[in-house]
# Entry
Amino acid sequence: MLSACSVFQSAPEVVDTGPVEQPLPPPLLESYSEGLAMLQQLEEVGDEQERLQQQQKVLQYWQDLSSEYPQYPGIWTNLALNQYQLKSYEESLASLNKAQQINAEFCPAFKLKGMVQRELGQFNDAESSYLAAANCAPQDANIPYNLGILYDLYLGDLDKALVQYQKAQAMLSEPDETLAVWIPDLQRRTGADKADEGAESAEPQVAGE
# Structure
């Protein structure tokens, strides 16, 4: 399980199912697991300079793996994640395109691709990628969360943003504090709160109540 950052640094997760969807040969499996551990350890590095140095090492690691085992979409997706973290968005998109050339339905690539395309200003493409990710990973709350951000801050569609934020909040086991602020704010800005009040007041009353 890997992680990347949204514009609000809420760390939506990217789940890499590469080894599951395409079993890796034993020599690669150990290297793959080591690479995943290196990516996860990056999250624990607080010093910015040290973190940058570690990211460069991890980048080289996944570049070497992609050269040695270019037939695995999970490797390209992990390389793309590291490139995303280094803000090398064009390179990250190229790696994701490699992953999808190998497997056009490789689900983890869609989610990360949406984030990369958003950074590149390709907002409509990002929407398509997020919708594809939501279709293949309907239980992943980070997808509607990020799609909501795209609608809210980049496409200016507040109604759609509200729907996605509410969907993400409903999917979480515990309410997200940030969404708990954003949702009522969008309800107020879109007038959805007034509509809800109107619907409640219009409900028929039972005689004697």
In short: DSSP finds eleven helices and two strands in the chain. The mean pLDDT is 85. The two ends are 54 Å apart (CA to CA). The first helix runs from residue 18 to 21.
